[in-house]
Amino acid sequence: MNIQEAYNRLNKKQKNIVKSNSLRLLVLAGAGTGKTSSIVVRITKHLSNDGFLPENIVALTFSNKAARELKERVELIVGKSKCEGMFIGTFHAFCVRVLKNFYEEALLTENFQILDSDDQKSLIKTIIKARELKIIDEIKRKTHKKEDIDSIKSEFKTHLGMTKNIIAVLSEFKNNELPLTHLANRFLDFNVPAEYALLYAAIINDYENKKNAVGVVDFDDLIVKTNFIFSEHEWIKKEFGKRIKAVLVDEYQDTSKVQSTLISNICSQESFLTVIGDDDQSIYGWRGAYIDNILGFGERENAQVIKLEQNYRSSQIILSAANSIIKNNKHRLGKSLWTDNIGIEKITTITCYNNFEEGDYVAAKVKKLIEDGSSPSSIAILYRKNFMSSTIEGAFHKSQIPYKVYGGLSFWQRTEIKDFMALLKWVRNPDQSLSIKRYLTLIKIGYGELKHIAINRLSEENNTTYETELINFAFNGKSNRTKEGLKAIISMINNARTIYREEGLHKLTIYLSDACNIADSYKKIKDPEKIIEMMQNIAALSDMTEHFISESDVSSQVANDDLTAFLISADLQLDGVEEKEEKNLVSIMTIHAAKGLEFSYVFLIGVDEGHFPSERIFDITEMEEERRIAYVAVTRAKEKLWISCANNRLGKPTQGESQFTKEIPQELINKERLVRKLF
Ligand SMILES: Nc1ncnc2c1ncn2[C@@H]1O[C@H](COP(=O)(O)OP(=O)(O)OP(=O)(O)O)[C@@H](O)[C@H]1O
Ligand SMILES: [Mg+2]
Fold first, then answer.
1. Which residues form the UvrD-like helicase C-terminal domain (predicted)?
2. Tens digits of per-residue pLDDT, 601-613?
3. Is residue 109's pLDDT more than 50?
């Protein structure tokens, strides 16, 4: 497709977006109306009509996947070589480029490192721990009272528990450009005593100092520091103003204040600035997105505003369903989307007995679609919570459906699953030294690399199993913490084997998930949300074993007991996951990861009240964001949408069909009933 063809394909309003000579342009339009398509062509207009060079153009978007797609679409029209030097990417990627060139002005070192969220957490925890130790040392020097020390220890446990909130507040301040001097006040909102609030502010101060001292930045800093360069060095701002002649921002509804400042920093009065978005698709409020950026843009910038109303993506039925969900939100601009695309396929809703039936149902439908000639990449399975991918993965594996889990680790690659599988492998095989070591180092009983090497060597020399040498070590000689820990675990492993022999695989996993100390070691993470998710994943794995028994004939060809068969099957899935890249695959992803994307066939799973919306949604602002997430999900579908819920998930009853499904008019729905398997 050349530039003219790409332009000709657009409708009148979309052409206006491309042609507009306004320096400030806001496109405010609903899902699937061709916003992204229009900016693709507007970029080519900047190149051809305005005579801009690729390096004069910056296009910013939200995720790497969305950026990649945007880039591909532009390259397809103008050719790859004409795009060289153009920046199309995320805000963070743009800032990294700038900071690499202006690290001195940003007060960084040339090789500054970026902290990921795990590093960030661990740095904050180290700071908290260091403060605790300092106070304890002082007590030891002065009074040495045990009760004082104990009380400090217990107080600092609470502080460690605040790590996630400390990080969230810091991010909120940076995204909203609030002065860090006001941090303490914000912590009072968590109903903590004033001295705790001061302490949390001081911890953040330590964190900032530490980062500066060692030359690292976190993700939020990337944008803050880039803005800092512009505010301190007028000449840099001028140079950018001269160089950058057009800035285009997709998904503008999910930008934060600090991102909006960045945009004004890199645009001069003479540069073109086009921002594009949909207030109904703002789904990152929890991460600092500032909806007033888009709502106030027209007036603030005296911008031309173009609205698009024709949706080209979805059938009328899907569009009506989306409209009928989103209209329940009070805080919105409101727009009426329409489409020419009549479509005959109603939305199928289905209530399953449990998540396994849901998984099998989806797998059967997907298999049929592929057999009937649909491309796997035209199919997506979307869900609200990460843990929901597990049963789908299991079912797809069983049905040999090629898939890829986007954004987030595949179920079998997740740490807690690998940890728990290590334990199962130990139960199965007393000589699985790597699995045994993984588990023992995880639970922190003082069992480390050196001990592991020693035990390994003994088992080789004596031609015994790793476990035998472990037992010899634990039960002989002077007792200590490690030995006591080992004794308890060995006894648990023995119990597990008895339970497996007498009651089978499912009971074994139930026993182990209860008895093992994995949950305890995760508690040290001090991130309640994350721990809940990890425990849900382990529960999902345990659930899977119950299902597995009834299906075990598949793996029984290679194993003569359920546990071995299950372990083999899991390893095969892990293998498969790692091999499958870049092929024609069914997409499995969270709704957040699917923003901006589209698929002919969408299965929206886990739409049970309590999970979506989550039972932990308390106020209207949060509920409206949940509903926008539902709107984003539904509007990903072009031809056909399935919405499923389960009456039981993770072995617990749910509250049945979600209110969002109930908001769709009955006439758009074809309700399917699943017949329960009898045997
Ligand atoms: N004028 C048009 N004629 C035919 N198809 C179009 C037209 N404009 C857009 N489309 C198609 O409509 C679909 C949606 O377009 P696009 O992804 O650009 O919408 P969007 O507004 O960016 O959606 P979202 O809100 O989900 O980001 C795409 O498949 C695109 O090719
Ligand atoms: Mg888009």
1. 316-596
2. 999 999 999 999 9
3. yes
